[in-house]
Amino acid sequence: MARRALRFALLTWLLGACWIHVPGDRHRPRTPKVVRQSRPTGAISDQCYLVKESPALSKSELHERLALRKPLPERLALVPSHQGRSTLVSTRAAGAPQDARLLNFNAAGQTVEVSLFDCGTVQMLEKHSSLWRVLLSDCDAVLPGTLVQIYDTTPRVEAPESADVAGGVKTTVLQESESARAAVTWNGMNGFSPSNCPREADGVHVAWRLWNCAQGACSLLHEEEDDKALVCEFGSLKKGILTMVVGETRRFWIPWDAPDRRFGRPVPERALPAGDLVVDLTVLGIEREAVFDYKLSEETLKLVNARERSLPVLASRAVGVGIQVFAWAMVYLHYLPPQDLDNMVGFSDTVL
C-alpha cells in the first residue's frame, strides 16, 4: 500500500514537471460569431457632457486663445441648431453632430474653416454669439445657410463630475448607440449584462483616439480604426467596454498610476504609454468567443514562452506540485492501518 502511494505521488510530480516545462496551447478552436458592425456617425451626442456642461465655442473665445497663445482646439463637433435643422438634407446629419477638424481661423475675416470626416470642408461665419452660419460647403450633408454650434471635443485632464467609475477608471458616454440594449443574460464572472454587450471571451472591432494629458492639457497622440478582431486585453478599460454596445462611444480617463495598461492585443503588440491619458473608444463590432480563435504573433509567443519558463513561474508551480504531493501523503497516512504504519516505521529504522 505504501509503495502504491509512493508511486502515485511520483507520477503526480512527473506530470507536474511536464506541465511546467511544456506550456501548451489552451485555446480551443471556435468559429467566431459576428454580432454586427457599424461605423461611428459623429464625435459626440447632443446629450453628452460636452454639450450639457460646457458652452459652445464663439468667435471671442477663439480670439482670446490666440491672444493668450493657447492652442486652438484640435477636434470639434458641429451640432446642428434647432433653427437650422430644416436645411440638412442627410438623415446621417439630421440632428447628429458632425466630427470635424479645425483647418483655419481667419481672425481678420472672422470665419472658421473645418474639415468634416468622410465628407468635405465647411466654411462658417458667426451669426451671433456661439451660433455659426455655413457660408461654403463641399459636403452634401450640410448645405450653405445651415446654423450650427461648435463644441471643443478635446478632453480636459480632469473627468467631469457626472462621469461613472468602471474598474477604477472614470468614463462617460460621448455618443449613444442607435441600437438599444437587449435583454439581460448571464455573463459569467461579470454577472448579468445585456446580451448584445461584449463578454469575457469575445473580441471587438474598435475605433479609438488616444490623448496625452501629462502636461496639464490634452493633445492628440494617435487615432486608429482597427478592422481586426481584438481579444479583450483592455486592462483598466475592460469593465467599461463590457457594458458597451455596437455603435457606442465612450471616453476613458486613464491615470498615470493605472497598473494594467494593456490595450487591445496581448503585449508586447499593444499597450498604453505611461502618464495621464484619455481614450475615446467606439465599438464597431463584436465577435463571440474570438479569444479561442485568436492567433498570437511570433513576438508574443516568444514573450509568453519566456514568461512560462521564468524562475518565479517555475518556482510557484513546483511549490504547487509539492503541496499536492504532501496533501496526498497526509491523506494516505491518515487512512493507513496501524499495522502497516508500524511496519513502515520499523522499515525506516532498519534502513537508518
TrEMBL record:
Superkingdom of origin organism: Eukaryota
Keywords assigned by UniProt, alphabetized: Signal
Record keyword Signal present: yes
Name of the protein in its database record: Peptidylprolyl isomerase
Signal peptide: 1-24
